Amino acid sequence: MTTQKKNSILSLFASVQLALFLLFLLAATSIIGTLIPQNSPPAFYVERFGQKTARFFQLLDIPDMYNSWWFLGLLTLFTLNLIVCSVERIPQVVRILRRDGLVVSPEQLHKFPLFRETRSLEALPAASDRVAALLEAQGWSAREADKGSGRLYFAQKGGWTRFGVYVVHSSILIILAGALIGSSAVARKLLHNPQFAFKGSIMLPEGESTNHIIAFKSDDHLDLGFHLRCDAFAIEYYPNGMPKTYRSRVTVLDNGQAVQTADIEVNQPLTYKGVTFYQSSYQPYQNYRVSLKKKDTNAETTAIVTTAKQVDWPGGGVSYGIINRESQGEVTRRLKIWFTDNQGDPSVFWVNNNQEATIERPSGTYLLTIRQMYATGLQATKDPGVWLVYGGCLLMLVGLYIAFFLSHRKIYVFVQPEEKGSRILFAGEANKNKVGFESKFSELISKLEK
Amino acid sequence: MDSSQLFGITMMAYLLASAFYLGLFLFKNERIGQIGMLLALGGAAVQTAAIGLRWYESYQMGVGHAPLTNMYESLVFFAWCTTWFYLALEFRFKTRVMGAFVMPCVAVAMAYASFSDRIDARINPLIPALQSNWLIAHVVTCFIGYAAFAVAGGLGVMYLLKQSAANDTKQDRPSVTGSLPALKIIDDLTYKAIVFGFMWLSAGIITGAIWANEAWGTYWSWDPKETWSIITWFLYALTLHARFTRGWRGRRIAWLAILGFVAVFFTYFGVNFLLSGLHSYGSA
Q1: How many CB pairs under 8 A join A and B?
Q2: pLDDT tops 60 at residue B282
Q3: What pLDDT, in 10s, does the model give residues B63-87?
Q4: How far is CA B58 from the centre of its chain?
Q5: What is the model's pLDDT at position B257?
């Protein structure tokens, strides 16, 4: 590659036109994935769009377009553009900041965006001392130089704010870096270490535990390095029937030791050893947990039962079973129980799910609670890049604030002796919020005129 | 007095304010403009009380939550943010006639919230996904951004109107747009509104991402709402870069402000009604 070619490629990546074009392209192509459903099975696209279109979609990875080669390519170009643009411009900013304000010739001052001229009856030393004191008092740490025809003062504030835009640019790079580090695809395909970063899920029935999860997309079983047990799952409802809470009570077992018990709810995940578990779904089972107690002896038992099966409790001298159910979808509302102590007719009654029933029998009083069992659906995520992403986000907000609302302000004062007193020239400029600076500028002058 | 009655009064105040602001625009009568401003201010005050009352009512119903959780509440909140943002701009920059381009938008949002069949005005309890402290931070930041973009869009329309009128009425006939501020001022205000909105939109996307990571275990999943918010962000980023580095001014920025608001509108509204995704609770 010749140097010239290299330079032309470099200058392309350093151009803002490319940035504008890429921003437009990213915005425009992103629309596609909001119109065409993403990550549906291949048959869906054939059925919805026809064989030919579906094949075309496949070719362009439209069904997963945000991870497609061309979209990631666009993002890569955008990133390169961002880096080259910033790297090229930062030295220019440094040059602007290094520029010595005192080299300005007093004759040029009237060309500044803000320019004002006043006269003072004081002669040079007194007048310039007053200017110096005023600048000092207003927080302008001025430097001065003798320009032959008079004395020039120069002060600036907020020069560093010119870097605000580059703070924003680097925050984008940090966010993208965090996204790469946390990407399960990168961990799997580039690092060949799917344990490094993953997203997956596990369906965990109550009472059971797992030491692995199943990764999304690849369906790999990923070892957690510890066990997670679901102790209980519960749904609470509002009076109007809307779900209020989905809650999994889980226990973490590390090396066979229970180390932590916690409730996982939506918006309240559990993190252990870098893996975060989220409440994401549930599955009602057609199994029921029965707790049974004989009141006078305090003998107790629990059992997991299914429908239409007789269960015996020799310790209490009773037998029972579920003979009917009332369900809403797969969720059981009420159950019909058959219960006998082999003395007289058996008791047959309806009881609500998870509500205690009192059964009076010739052999004594029994308390029975029957509860439908669930499996909780947990999503598990390991994202080592997330703090980088959050840090980048915070940096972006700080950078935007600096870039938009803080400005680089410069002020020049030239004191020139005259026959009677002196002539004072003021000049100033700000790169942003010019209106605000203008009023500060006027304020400064009126203070001096007083 | 319950909150729905107060919202009714708010809507009437905004409708009247729109009429008076339009009157100011057409007849250039300062008095009419003043009444418009007072109506908008009064409406905004009543609406503030109404939002507070609705919040309180939700606690009385035992399902207490900030009134920011469905389409009705978000439209009301959009109207509230936009009105206050507009009024702040009017006081700061003394450009009252702008109201003719902003308040109708607000009045339509309130009227739509009140009358549309698709919108349920009842206070409902929060589904588990919405029970989070991030709710307020996310919705408030987004809607301050939306409000600023709505005003910027209105200013864009104003700019184009003024400019086209300036082009074809070269003769001395007094033009309808004579009451509008100078093009340069409109252009500057449009830019300021976009900058302000961009800051808040960024904050809105960020708070949304953090919340998504808390609730769903992923801070970015390219669901249509997220995608449209980033499309909007790209558009405004493009606008700002074009202005800063390529010196785009006036007409082009006005068009971009309008296009940007179309994207905002779609992010906010179109996604809920036309596309499906994780944000579907916003649609009723």
Answers
A1: 101
A2: no
A3: 788 888 888 888 899 999 999 999 9
A4: 25
A5: 95
Q: What mean pLDDT do residues B153-158 have? A: 93
Cβ atoms A186, A411 nearer than 8 A: no
| Among the listed residues B212, B281, B215, B238, the one whose alpha carbon sits nearest the alpha carbon of residue B71 | B281
What tokens were used for A71?
């979209």
| Buried/exposed B214-232: b ≥16 CB within 10 Å, e otherwise | bbbbbbbbbbbbbbbbbbb
- For tokens 């993953």, what's the residue? A198
Q: Which residue of A has its CA nearest to B226?
A: A34
Q: How far is B124 from B63, CA to CA, in rounded Å?
A: 7
**Strands A209-215, A221-237: pairing kind:** antiparallel
Query: What ipTM did this prediction achieve?
Result: 0.89
What are B182-212's pLDDT values in tens digits? 888 889 899 999 999 999 999 999 999 999 9
What tokens appear for A431 in the block? 């790169």
pLDDT tens profile A180-196: 999 988 998 899 999 99
* In chain B, domain spans: 1-80+95-126, 131-284
Q: How many CB atoms lie within 10 A of CB B264?
A: 27
Find the CB nearest A16 among B210, B216, B246.
B246
Distance from CA of B128 to the nearest CA of A (A): 6
**Are B220 and A27 in contact (CB < 8 Å)?**
no
- Answer yes or no: are the C-beta atoms of A330 and A376 closer than 8 Å: no
Instruction: State pTM to two decimals.
Output: 0.88
List of residues 6+ apart from A84 with CB closer than 8 A = A10, A13, A14
% of residues, chain B, pLDDT over 90 = 45
d(CA A210, CA A227): 5
